[in-house]
TrEMBL record, chains A, B:
Family the entry assigns: Belongs to the zinc-containing alcohol dehydrogenase family.
Protein name: NAD(P)-dependent alcohol dehydrogenase
Domain of life: Bacteria
CDD domains found in the cross-reference section: CAD1 (cd05283)
Biological source species: Stenotrophomonas lacuserhaii
Keywords: Metal-binding, Oxidoreductase, Zinc
SUPFAM superfamilies documented for this protein: GroES-like (SSF50129), NAD(P)-binding Rossmann-fold domains (SSF51735)
């Protein structure tokens, strides 16, 4: 056991406040990581506010974790003390189902164990996340992070990064393709960077014309303002793939109209109802696909971290101290961040 | 020009009544077909009632046509006088767009010309369908029909048949797969027959337990009553492919829960809103696909007719005289047909 300093929510209306709790002892397959940076994901807010139900308090959010390995169990082979390491949305899974055996732990038949607000398979206790000074995680769920990456800006790769990288890879985005990234936020700005690095022609699709210049800076070849019917018409039937990062229910029909025959739009942001509803016409005429994708498996997360090191890809971040986390959440709720807050966890020692 | 005897609707509330009009002259690439049988598709009713808008009257419905070639133009190479022939939902397209050049005329960039309530590309007049004694169609949009098939029962293959065959083939349904056909009507009963002939394990998914015995007779290996939560739970996550033939808006979420990871549900019946709406969760967790498919191209329609001749597949039909068409429509509206009405067009001469 080791005493952890953290910030936690104690109800769905309370602000985050300092909190101390015990981490589980380092088991034979575990590593203990001193957390250097912890990204703030929009789902942290959703879960702390219990927007999706099932919240357990006290809750220490955070699943975009970058840190340094400070202790390893006897059976750990993939990491050693001193390595830089990353932890994302999952810290465990059944490891034997069909999905786990295909390195798709995020689709584990028994349900993956989430980094916070989950149930620890070793202790039965509620898992606690990255707004904390350290964490203990089984080695399969820890990735190695190259020293060449800007570590604070690498934290969001563990969720925003893998969530966008995985579908772009799975659906084989590459050179010669016209790819649209819908929505320019924490996910969308990573989608643009990855789609560009994979060689596609990238169009940023946004409701906000003001974001255009920023999209170009991030690597977009073109900006399509979705509220402009003329622009939408000009791009109709022209996209090979759409990565839809919008985090709330919305009308997907106009976007389906942008796809070529047999092409796919992949949802990564919205969990709730697609309202107003999708129509049959939107998929039937052109045999179009609507699909979705959840984060990525651990092997693919490591692949992404290596891809980022190779291509010099990180998130655009604004670094804050843990003491300012409640204000950051308020600003995030208003989309007032370009594009991700990251907590410098050294501040928790102060 | 040739005078055609037919039955037509003259408004969205009027019954079908006898109607006489001129068919266009047989051009160099055209064939003239004496219609022997004309299937009654649910969309005939929708279009005559103007449920989808754009109805032009008088309207002669009918796009499941079986007949005999009685005249061919000078450039016709694929058919000869005396051949049995079929005409489906389309009678023309641009023939040069990307889709047409890939034998996918149904997705023609300029819009395929529908067999009725369309605009004839030769004459600019409204096209008139198969509730008629003959029709003139360009050879590319006419398929050959084997004499070995029961011709009256072959008529619905031209719409209900190809609409279900095409997605089963495109999404590679075959041996070793568990395939669900949702909805047991004109489309669904053909879906069961084709999925079985393609070697899949076929589960008929219906809200109506009484249809179970019939589904088994049609070839289903198993029946799943979708209103039974226990049965739905037992089949959760087990299907490789779902063919959804439900013709009206419905909740697709429970069906998405039946799919395996990365598997697809294909809509072929519903054009309108999927209400209550699909949720992001239904596609994101398991990277599942919702897609759709419209009829099939002409080359594939010919392939299907040949497949049917080889496997002895036809529709289950109830044959009526043209004079009874209004009563048949009323029964069809109440789903009181197993599974397709077909008009014996000899009755129009009487």
């Amino acid at each position: 056991m080791s005493l952890a300093k953290a910030y936690a929510a104690h109800s769905n209306t309370a602000p985050l406040v300092p909190f101390t709790f015990e981490r589980r002892p380092v088991g034979a397959g575990d590593v203990r990581i001193e957390i250097l940076y912890s990204g703030i994901c929009h789902s942290d807010l959703h879960q702390a506010r219990d927007d999706w139900g099932g919240a357990k308090y006290p809750m220490v959010p955070g699943h975009e974790i970058i840190g340094k390995v400070v202790e390893v169990g006897a059976e750990v082979t993939t990491l050693k003390v001193g390595d830089f390491a990353g932890v994302g949305c999952m810290v465990d899974s059944c490891r034997h189902c069909e999905a786990c055996s295909h390195d798709l732990e995020q689709y584990c038949a028994e349900g993956a164990t989430f980094t916070y607000n989950g149930t620890d398979r070793h202790t039965g206790e509620t898992t606690q996340g990255g707004y904390s000074d350290h964490i203990v995680v089984e080695q399969r769920f820890v990735v190695k992070v190259s020293e060449t990456l800007d570590l604070k800006a690498a934290a969001p790769l563990l969720c925003a990064g893998i969530t966008t990288y995985s579908p772009l890879k799975h659906f084989k985005v590459g050179p010669g393709q016209k790819v649209g990234v819908i929505g320019l936020g924490g996910l969308g700005h990573m989608g643009v960077k990855f789609a560009k690095a994979l060689g596609a022609q990238v169009v940023m699709i946004t409701t906000t014309p003001e974001k255009g210049a920023d999209a170009t800076r991030l690597g977009a070849d073109e900006v399509l303002v979705s509220r402009d019917p003329e622009q939408m018409k000009a791009h109709a039937g022209s996209f090979d793939f759409l990565l839809n990062t919008i985090p709330v229910g919305h009308d997907t029909n106009p976007y389906m109209g942008l796809l070529k025959r047999d092409a796919t739009m992949c949802l990564v942001g919205v969990l709730t109802e697609l309202d107003p509803p999708l129509t049959g016409v939107s998929v039937i005429f052109g045999r179009k696909h609507l699909t979705g994708s959840a984060i990525g498996g651990m092997a693919e997360t490591q692949e992404m971290m290596d891809f980022c090191a190779e291509h010099g890809i990180v998130s655009d971040v604004e670094v804050i101290n843990i003491q300012d986390v409640n204000e950051a959440w308020e600003r995030m709720a208003k989309n007032d961040v370009r594009y991700r807050f990251v907590i410098d966890m050294a501040s928790i020692k102060g």
